[in-house]
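Human: We require from you a standard protein entry with sequence in single-letter code and fold as C-alpha cells, and nothing else.

Assistant:
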Amino acid sequence: MVDLDGSIALVTGASSGIGTACARSFARAGARLVLLARSGDRLRELQAELADDSGGACYVLPCDVRDRAAVTAAVASLPPSWSDIDVLVNNAGLSRGFDRFPDCSIEDWEEMIDTNLKGLLYVTRALVPGMVARDRGHIINIGSIAGHQTYPRGNVYCATKAAVRALSEGLKLDLLGTAVRVSSVDPGLVETNFSNVRFHGDRVQAAKTYAGMTPLTPEDIAEVVAFCASRPPHVNISEVLVIPTDQSSSTLVHRRLPDERA
C-alpha cells in the first residue's frame, strides 16, 4: 500500500456525487486536492468543509472541461507547489436524455460527447506529459457499466463510455515503459444526481431509476478509487466493474415491492 499523504490528486467534476466523495476520501488519506468543476461556489464550500474536517489542503479550479482553452489555461495557472499532479481522477461526466435514437436531441448528444469524451481528453492531455516527465502518476477514469453493455435508449451515452474504456486501454498501451498507471473504475447504478440530469430535472422519473433496489453510493465508488491509487507502484488495477448486489447487468435489476423492503 502506498501512503497518499502529501500527494496531489486532481478530481474533475468535484462539486457533487462521486467527485465530491473522491475528494473526501483522498483528503482523509492526507492527499492535497485540486478540485475542478464548473461551480466555483460549490468547490469553495467543499474546500472549506475538507479544511474543517480533515485539515486537507485544497486548490480550487473553476473550469468547464468542455472548453479546451479553459482547461489548458487552468492547468497552466497552477502554482509550482500544486502543479505536479500525482493522481488524476477523470470523473466529470453526465447522461442527457433517454430516447430512442431517431427521437434524440442532438444537443444532448453534443453535451455528452463534449463532457464525457472530449473533456476527459483535454484534462488528460494537459497533465500526462508532466507525469511522463516525472516518471510517476496515475490516471483513474470513471467509466460505467454502459461502456461494457449497451442498453436500449442508451445509444450515445453508452458510446461515450465505451470510448472511455477504449481510451483507458489505449493510454496503457502508449504509456508502457513509464511508471504512469491507468485505471478504469466502472460503476453500475449509483444514486447521485445522475438520473435527475439525464431526465432534465424530472425528479419523479429520476427516482424510478433506484426504486425498489439498493443502489451503490458515491462513497462506495470513492473507496474503490482510493484503493486503486494506494496500490504499490508495481501494481496497476487496470479495470474494476462495480455493481450493486441488486443489479446483474446494465438492464437486469431486482426490485422489491414496498412490503418486501419494510
